[in-house]
């Protein structure tokens, strides 16, 4: 299985809602990532988990809260979002090794988020 | 500053003709270089990577890329373009001193349009 799955595919939420995005992979990867992508722009890294521990937080606002319950799952909890947070949210995974930087990332199809 | 440049917003090619999508980078140390492709409303798909060794790297779907250290370039090529190659292409680099070993720097992306 070389697939990263993300649910839901689309999400519309109000600014007072709480919702969660989910990501799952069964490739045995121990590094998982959240990216935000605006239309026609490159992905922007938000968070990196390595061996289920948060290793990179790219100064993301606290209204985004990541969680890695186990090595296969990655969640992104959303609360009190703003309309400018509307974007495609991509999850990715890769092999994790502190000294090996050549591991490509495998991306999921993304969740299209609209904040009203 | 470490960066990746894709100088062309869009590349237009006739089907059957060779294509080139350009990428140059500016990083400290020896970089690891990647190409990804993104179809509409989809996640990124890995095409190929350069880690070390031969400067010509072959990847998925008939694509290849040439690493040129003196010109700090990693251009993506294909001998004969297909209409189905039309998509958004991202060059990415993982620098040696990124401060986080699983961090990619993406170029702005190049839209490839292959015309019948």
Describe it for me?
The complex is a heterodimer of chains A (116) and B (116). With 116 residues, chain A is an all-beta fold. Chain A has no helices and 11 strands. In chain A, a hairpin with a 6-residue loop joins strand 4 and strand 5. The radius of gyration of chain A is 14 Å and the shape is globular. With 116 residues, chain B is mainly beta. Chain B has a single domain, classed as Immunoglobulins (Immunoglobulin-like). In chain B, 0% of the residues lie in helices and 50% in strands. Chain B contains no helices and 12 strands. In chain B, the strands form 3 sheets. In chain B, strands 2, 5, 6, 10, 11 and 12 form a 6-stranded mixed beta sheet that branches. In chain B, strands 3-9-8-7 form a 4-stranded antiparallel beta sheet, with no helix packed on it. In chain B, strand 8 (64-68) and strand 9 (73-78) form a beta hairpin. The model of chain B has no long low-confidence stretch (mean pLDDT 91). Chains A and B meet through strand 5, strand 9 and strand 10 of A and strand 5, strand 6 and strand 10 of B.
What is the topology?
The complex is a heterodimer of chains A (116) and B (116).
Chain A: E1 4-7, E2 10-13, E3 18-25, E4 31-37, E5 44-50, E6 53-57, E7 64-70, E8 73-79, E9 87-94, E10 106-107, E11 111-115
Parallel strand pairs in A: 2-11
Antiparallel strand pairs in A: 1-3, 3-8, 4-5, 4-9, 5-6, 7-8, 9-10, 9-11
Chain B: E1 3-5, E2 10-14, E3 19-21, E4 24-26, E5 32-38, E6 44-50, E7 56-58, E8 64-68, E9 73-78, E10 87-94, E11 105-106, E12 110-115
Parallel strand pairs in B: 2-12
Antiparallel strand pairs in B: 1-4, 3-9, 5-6, 5-10, 7-8, 8-9, 10-11, 10-12
- Extract low-pLDDT stretches of chain A: none
Query: Helix- and strand-based class of chain A?
Result: mainly beta
Report the portion of residues of chain B in β strands. Answer: over 45%
The overall average pLDDT of chain A, rounded, is 92
Distance between the termini of chain B: 41 Å
Unreliably modeled segments of chain B = none
Q: What is the CATH topology assignment of chain B?
A: Immunoglobulin-like
Helix and strand run of chain A:
EEEEEEEEEEE
Largest sheet descriptor of chain B: 6 strands, mixed
Tell me, rounded to a whole number, the average pLDDT of chain B.
Answer: 91
How many beta-strand runs of chain A?
Answer: 11
Question: What would you call the quaternary organization?
Answer: heterodimer
How many separate domains make up the residues of chain B?
A: 1
Helix content of chain A: under 10%
What general outline of chain B do the C-alpha atoms trace? globular
Alpha plus pi helix count of chain A: 0
Structural class designation of chain B = mainly beta
CATH architecture type of chain B: Sandwich
Largest interface: A-B, 31 and 25 residues
């Amino acid at each position: 299985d070389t697939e990263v799955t993300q649910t839901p595919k689309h999400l519309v939420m109000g600014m007072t809602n709480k919702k969660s995005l989910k990501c799952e992979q069964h490739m045995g990867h121990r590094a998982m990532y959240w990216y935000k992508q605006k239309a026609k722009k490159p992905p922007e890294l938000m968070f990196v988990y390595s061996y289920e521990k948060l290793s990179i937080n790219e100064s993301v606002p606290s209204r985004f809260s990541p969680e890695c319950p186990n090595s296969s799952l990655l969640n992104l909890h959303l609360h009190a979002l703003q309309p400018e947070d509307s974007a495609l949210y991509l999850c990715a995974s890769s092999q994790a090794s502190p000294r090996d930087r050549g591991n490509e990332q495998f991306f999921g199809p993304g969740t299209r988020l609209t904040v009203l | 500053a470490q960066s990746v440049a894709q100088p062309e917003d869009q590349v237009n090619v006739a089907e059957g003709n060779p294509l080139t999508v350009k990428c140059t980078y500016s990083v400290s140390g020896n970089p690891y270089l990647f190409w990804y492709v993104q179809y509409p409303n989809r996640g990124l798909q890995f095409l190929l990577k350069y880690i070390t060794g031969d400067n010509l790297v072959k990847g998925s779907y008939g694509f290849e890329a040439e690493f040129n250290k003196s010109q700090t370039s990693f251009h993506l090529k294909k001998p004969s373009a297909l209409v189905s190659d039309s998509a958004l292409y991202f060059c990415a680099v993982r620098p040696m001193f990124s401060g986080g070993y699983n961090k990619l720097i993406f170029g702005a992306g190049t839209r490839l349009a292959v015309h019948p």
